[in-house]
Specification:
Blueprint lengths: L1 E4 L5 E4 L10 E7 L6 H12 L3 H14 L1 E8 H17 L5 E6 L3
Antiparallel strand pairs: 1-2, 3-4, 3-5
Helix pairs in contact: 1-2
Amino acid sequence: MTIEHDFSGNVVLDRQTSQVKPPPMYQVILLNDDYTPMEFVVLILQKYFSKTELEATRIMLRVHHDGRGVCGVYTKDIAATRTAQVMQLARAHQHPLQCVMEPVEE
């Protein structure tokens, strides 16, 4: 709001509208490699992305055939957290699985 005074000394409030944009979104993507077991990829998709076994299997096959697959779309903080969780679990099990996040193009 802007506060102004008119000629008689009264205060006049001018309402300014502001538009709030939704936060930028990021997609979390798994990248294919020749060593990580398919079952492990399905487990990750179920554990961190709440996918059903069927959904997880479809995404895993997309990663396997296309070289990459989108796990989900989130705000920046959530996408970064999920990416870190996937990478941490993959390293703990000594798998070279790569997980990245990319901005969603609007």
